[in-house]
TrEMBL record:
<dbReference type="Pfam" id="PF02882">
    <property type="entry name" value="THF_DHG_CYH_C"/>
</dbReference>
<dbReference type="InterPro" id="IPR020867">
    <property type="entry name" value="THF_DH/CycHdrlase_CS"/>
</dbReference>
<feature type="binding site">
    <location>
        <position position="232"/>
    </location>
    <ligand>
        <name>NADP(+)</name>
    </ligand>
</feature>
<dbReference type="GO" id="GO:0004488">
    <property type="term" value="F:methylenetetrahydrofolate dehydrogenase (NADP+) activity"/>
</dbReference>
<dbReference type="GO" id="GO:0009086">
    <property type="term" value="P:methionine biosynthetic process"/>
</dbReference>
<protein>
    <recommendedName>
        <fullName>Bifunctional protein FolD</fullName>
        <ecNumber>1.5.1.5</ecNumber>
        <ecNumber>3.5.4.9</ecNumber>
    </recommendedName>
</protein>
<dbReference type="InterPro" id="IPR020630">
    <property type="entry name" value="THF_DH/CycHdrlase_cat_dom"/>
</dbReference>
<keyword id="KW-0378">Hydrolase</keyword>
<keyword id="KW-0560">Oxidoreductase</keyword>
<feature type="domain" description="Tetrahydrofolate dehydrogenase/cyclohydrolase NAD(P)-binding">
    <location>
        <begin position="140"/>
        <end position="285"/>
    </location>
</feature>
<comment type="similarity">
    <text>Belongs to the tetrahydrofolate dehydrogenase/cyclohydrolase family.</text>
</comment>
<dbReference type="GO" id="GO:0004477">
    <property type="term" value="F:methenyltetrahydrofolate cyclohydrolase activity"/>
</dbReference>
<dbReference type="GO" id="GO:0006164">
    <property type="term" value="P:purine nucleotide biosynthetic process"/>
</dbReference>
<comment type="function">
    <text>Catalyzes the oxidation of 5,10-methylenetetrahydrofolate to 5,10-methenyltetrahydrofolate and then the hydrolysis of 5,10-methenyltetrahydrofolate to 10-formyltetrahydrofolate.</text>
</comment>
<keyword id="KW-0521">NADP</keyword>
<keyword id="KW-0486">Methionine biosynthesis</keyword>
<dbReference type="GO" id="GO:0000105">
    <property type="term" value="P:L-histidine biosynthetic process"/>
</dbReference>
Length: 288
């Protein structure tokens, strides 16, 4: 392996510490703690784990954490009423509805019921619009975390060729926008891209966010490029211990890249750290 490892775990720990310092300053100034409310509908095991770690990290940073659980068969009206109640609660700075919602509930309708100024996930249509036109709002946590890692690794990114693989609303689309704002020349590649290896080979920066285990191979990567792997895929045959792999084949890519994020320990820990940061930003904005 010749690539430098981009240590997202360490960077995220530093960011959580910084948030903790500012959270204490906020409490001293405002006379209350900043607070994040998380709503979980149903009992999806992966979502339970996410929600528990979000709650722990929020409290560890010196902020209030509230968790609301609704049964998997909760009606849309019940869920929307909960969101409306949290919108009106002055102690709540951030609202996160854990996705995916159970079948029958409309993710975007629920998200768009959140007050955009409490939408710390940055998924509300108003925040997507603000990002698209360059206004201040909330930016989705995972792509913002990727940009923080890239800036820390590369410094000024002006003029670099960036290829984002994947065009989801949660990662690919906002990622492309953020990289353009950093003055990169951005290509968005996806499942219909012709000759993906050739497109990836142009890139100084590769961001892989497709959810396909080890899809991006080492010989696609331009020597010295910076590789950000957003994928978290659980692989292993039935009966085997599962292991986590990214969307990039680490064994081959790490021989060619200049710097690369590992899975786990790369992008993953950044998401919660940025969520805490967004919640604190919301608290300061709301207090004026
Ligand atoms: N499910 C998995 N990750 C996330 C996230 O960052 N936000 C929300 N709301 N749901 C998720």
């Amino acid at each position: 392996m010749s690539a430098a490892l981009i240590d997202g775990k360490a960077f995220a720990a530093g960011l959580r510490d910084t948030v903790g310092t500012y959270a204490a300053a906020f409490e001293a100034k405002a006379g209350r703690k900043a607070g994040l409310a998380v709503v979980l509908v149903g009992e999806d095991p992966a979502s339970e784990i996410y929600v528990r770690s979000k709650g722990k990290a929020t409290e560890a940073a010196g902020m209030n954490s509230w968790e609301y659980r609704l049964p998997a068969d909760a009606s849309e009206a019940t869920l929307l009423a909960k969101v409306v109640e949290l919108n009106a609660d002055p102690a709540v700075d951030g609202i996160l509805v854990q996705l995916p919602l159970p079948r029958g509930l409309d993710d975007q309708k629920v998200i768009d019921t959140i007050d955009p100024d409490k939408d710390v996930d940055g998924f509300h249509i108003v925040n997507a619009g603000r990002l698209a036109v360059g206004q201040d709002g909330f930016v989705p946590c995972t792509p913002l975390g990727c940009v923080m890692l890239l800036k820390d690794t590369l410094g000024d990114m002006s003029g670099l060729e960036a290829v984002v693989i994947g065009r989801s609303n949660i990662v690919g689309r906002p990622m492309a926008r953020l990289l353009a704002d950093e003055n990169c020349t951005v290509t968005v590649a996806h499942s219909r891209t012709r000759d993906l290896p050739e497109v990836v080979h142009r890139a100084d920066i590769v961001v892989a966010a497709v959810g396909q285990p080890e899809m991006v191979k080492g010989d696609w990567i331009k020597p010295g490029a910076t590789v950000i792997d957003v994928g978290i895929n659980r692989v292993g045959a039935v009966g085997e211990v599962k292991r986590l792999v990214g969307d990039v084949e680490f064994s081959s890519a790490s021989k060619v890249a200049g710097a690369i994020t590992p899975v786990p320990g790369g992008v993953g820990p950044m998401t919660i750290a940025v969520l805490l940061r967004n919640t604190l930003v919301s608290a300061y904005r709301r207090e004026g």
